Structure formats: structure tokens, C-alpha cells
Amino acid sequence: MPNVLVPTPRGQMPAWLAIPLNTSAAPGVVVIHDVLGMTRDHRNQADWLAQAGFLSLAIDLYYPGGMLLCLRSIIRDFTERSGPAFDDIEAARSWLAAQPNCTGKIGVIGFCMGGGFVLLLISGHGFSAASVNYGGKLPPDFDAFLKLACPVVGSYGGLAKWEQGVADQLQIALERALVPHDVKEYPDAGHSFMNQHGTFLLKLLRYKANGYNEPATFDARRRIAAFFHQHLDR
């Protein structure tokens, strides 16, 4: 169950706050879920980030009415690049930065749908580092986002046909814009390789182009934690 409520323009957003064992102030990370919303897997993403030393807040963008009622409006906000979903993310960032055990520097990480949101949050949204994990194709005008972009770490599965080439495109764009970055494609992993969902979903997803891949996950987590420490500990 969510363990904190974050005030937003629409009301109280349930969220999962994972706190590092170290009692000193830590950088924060807002965690944006995949299409399945506030699952045990989503909370686990915040938990491993906390173990890596970050005050991590896994938010629930479906809180006004659940996935079926909210997904349409989420897609609309994503397409228009503004709206209640972005307001909720900003509320989470501001709330986390104001916590007494936070240094005030905040990163953002997203998976699948959440990774797509992160691509649109790297400039002008107050984040100091961003982690994009299989976030879909780049927007056509992506270069325009990079003028004020924060450092970006990206991870993709090479077996996901609909995302083939995206890692290379992202790396080239970030290099061209002189944005600090670490982008990697895992050739033996597919889409959602860092997500572990329930048994039923795993049966549906257990084919080469999709599903959890432990070696790729461990390496991606190592890279993300190192990259976030590099850019959020300053």
C-alpha cells in the first residue's frame, strides 16, 4: 500500500516513499510507473533506489480513478505535453525536494510509459538528472528539448523491435547537444527487462522480445545509480 500522500492540484496523490538507511540527507528521485500503475514492481523500483542511497518516491498517476478511467487522460496529457499528469509529477518533485531528509536535488526515472514521460521532462521541469528506460521512440522535435536538458542515462532492450535503433538515436542527439549521458542497449534483453510483474503477466510476457532479464537489470541499475550519484550528489 502507498505510505504517503502528496498534495497536488487535484487532491492527495498516494505514493510510496522509500528511505535510504543512511540517516544523512540524500538526493531525491521521482519514480514514474509503466502502464500497469502502482504495482509491487513499481514500489520495488523505489526500494532499490533507496538501497542505492536515494530518497525515492514512486507515484501513482492513476490515483483519481484507476488505470481504466485514467489511461485515456494520461495519453492525452502525454500527447499534448502538459496537463494534470505533468502537474502531478511537478507536485511530487516539489514535495520530495522539501522533505527535511532530502538535499533538494531531484532526479526522475521512468519505465515504459514512464520512460516516455521522462523524455519530455528532461528540460525545464526542475530535474537534475533523468533515467529513461525503454521509453519508446523519440519525439520528432526531440532536439528542441535538449537545449536546457539535464544529464540523461538511458537503457533499452535490443530485442524490442519497436524500439530498435532508439538507443543510438538518443545517444547521437545527446552528443550533438553536449548533454552528459550514458546510453546502452542490451542485445539479449527485450522491452520491460527491468520490470517483474505477477505470475500471470510473466506468462503473457515470457517471450524473447519482452519481460524481465536479470543480468541486464543488474547492470542497468548499477549504471543508473552511479550516474545519479555523479549528477545528484554535487
UniProtKB/TrEMBL annotation:
Q: Where is the Dienelactone hydrolase domain?
A: 14-231
One term of GO molecular function: hydrolase activity
| Pfam families linked | DLH
Record keyword Transmembrane present: yes
Keyword entries, A-Z: Hydrolase, Membrane, Transmembrane, Transmembrane helix
Give TM segment ranges. Answer: 48-71
| InterPro entries xref list | AB_hydrolase_fold, Dienelactn_hydro, Dienelactone_hydrolase-like
Stretch forming the signal peptide:
none
Official protein name in the record:
Dienelactone hydrolase
Q: What species does this protein belong to?
A: Candidatus Sulfuritelmatomonas gaucii
